[in-house]
Amino acid sequence: MPTQYIFLILAICFEVIGTTAMAASQQFTKLIPVLILVVSYGLSFYFLSQTLRTVPVGIAYAVWSGLGIVLISLIGLVFLGQKLDFPAILGMSMIIAGVLVIHLFSQTATH
Q1: What is the torsion angle, in degrees rounded to the nearest 10, for the CA atoms of residue 23, residue 25, residue 27 and residue 31?
Q2: C-alpha distance from residue 49 to each of 4, 5, 75 (Å)
Q3: Are 47 and 97 in contact (CB under 8 A)?
Q4: Residue 111: pLDDT over 60
């Protein structure tokens, strides 16, 4: 796997960890989740910046934010008891389809 995709996957994972910690911080009133949030977002942006060495910013950001939305929604569903209705599932399916279109067909994305 090319290095830029490893960096992008790490950026997405740390963004999801940070967002999960944000939910656990109870509006920034719990110290440990706040610390996890700050460190995770810092690492996420670091790895995203490393991705930008070789991947165009629009492509990297589309994948980073799109997959982050889907993953954090799944965490909300599985671990936080949040519900997803049909329009939410349909919209996230479209996000995944968009990421696939970028990577399978775009000449802009680096492979």
Answers
A1: -160
A2: 10, 12, 25
A3: no
A4: no
d(CA 111, CA 106): 10
- Cα separation, 104 vs 33, whole angstroms: 37
Report whether 68 contacts 9 (CB < 8 A): no
CB 62 within 8 A of CB 98: yes
Structure confidence by residue, pLDDT tens digits, 44-63: 999 999 999 999 999 999 99
DSSP one-letter code for 47:
H
pTM of the predicted protein model: 0.88
Instruction: Scan for tokens 């799944």, then name that residue.
Output: 74
